[in-house]
Amino acid sequence: MSEILSQLWTPELQMAMTVFVVMLVILYVLSVVWVVRDAYLRGTMWYVWAIVALVPVVGIIAYCLLRPPLLQIDRDEQELEVALKQRQLMQYGECGNCGYPVEADYILCPNCHQRLKNQCVKCGHALDPSWTVCPYCATSLPAAPARRGARTTSHPHQQAAPQANPAGKAPLQGATRQQER
Ligand SMILES: [Zn+2]
Ligand SMILES: [Zn+2]
Hints:
mainly alpha, 2 domains, two-stranded antiparallel ribbon, two-stranded antiparallel sheet, 4 strands, rod-shaped, binds zinc ion
């Protein structure tokens, strides 16, 4: 029996076994390093997880099952992304005629061709039909009759802005009219 074993235990097999064991050790060390690093990045108590990870196989499986779900950096990034999306949404409204989503600076509805905004003759910015002065270049505008459905029903923040300060608007309007004459 021992003769057969010694015959099977060739130098090649010995070599293969050594390589296999070395690989296992490297894998074990790497797994511990990974757990420590990952736990640190996730903002958990990494030293506790380091001790857990020292238990071969079981340690790393336990960590994979119980680790906190998100990296701290990812969490921050997600919050930023949500804030950005909300700001982008604030720039959108919908066509008063057909309800098609339109951006705040659209002049026409791309869907039904309803006129949404006037265009400043001087700087070309899109202007709300109710405005009597261009907020971008201070050009006073001809008092166009406000059309029904021509205003975008956008976010309340946007519509509140031009009407919020009527006292400040009047002198500016008068000043620009005087400049023109
Ligand atoms: Zn439309
Ligand atoms: Zn303008």
